Amino acid sequence: MFSYDFIQKLLGLQGIKVTSVYVNNGILYVCATSDASFAICPRCGQVAQYVHDRRRQPCEHLDIWGMKTVILLEKKRYKCDCDPYHPFDEEFAFIRRYQRRTIPYEKYIFLLTHKNTVQNVCDIVNISEGACQRIYVHYANTILDNLEPEPLRILGIDEIATKKGHNYDTIIYNQETGSVVAVLDGRTKDVLVKYLMSFPKSVREGVEAVSMDMSRSYCFGVLECMPNAKPVIDRFHIADNLYRCVDDARKHIQNRIKKYGNKHEVFGIRWALLKDVEDLTREQALRLILACTKYPEIEKLHYLKEEFRTFFRLESKESALGFLEYFKDLVEQYDIPELKGFCKTIDNWLPYILNYYDYQISNGLVEGSNHKIKNIKRRAYGYRNSRNFELRIKLEFECA
Ligand SMILES: [Zn+2]
Question: How remote is the CA of residue 44 from the centroid of ligand 1, in Å?
Answer without folding.
Answer: 4
